[in-house]
Amino acid sequence: MFEGITPVHLIIVLVIALLILGPGKLPETGAALGKAFREFRHGLTDASQTTPTSTVASTGTTTQPDPTASPPPPSEPL
Q1: Along the 78 residues of the chain, how does pLDDT read in single tens digits?
Q2: Which of left, alpha, beta for 71 (phi over 0: left; psi -120 to 50: alpha)?
Q3: How many angstroms separate the most distant Cα atoms in the chain?
């Protein structure tokens, strides 16, 4: 769908943003958008570093379910 964004496309988007937001709000909105992207990327890297990918990777062994454990109670119908 999006083969590539050319400089012409970027200019068109910036002109539309300038018309909608105005020259006073455009830098402020760009800075807020950049900050949001940085925080999102930072959150993704923090989550990937702190969350183990599987129990095998974190403990080195696989865990088996307890055969003596009782099954969970049935859920109530809606």
Answers
A1: 567 889 999 899 989 999 998 989 988 998 999 999 999 999 888 877 776 555 455 555 666 667 777 777 777 776
A2: beta
A3: 69
The answer to whether 65 and 58 have CB atoms below 8 angstroms apart is no
Q: How far apart are alpha carbons 22 and 19 in whole angstroms?
A: 6
C-alpha distances in Å from residue 10, one per residue of 7, 14, 15, 30, 77: 5, 6, 9, 14, 53
The answer to whether the predicted template modeling score (pTM) of the entire model surpasses 0.85 is no
Backbone angles phi, psi at 10, to 5 degrees: -65, -40
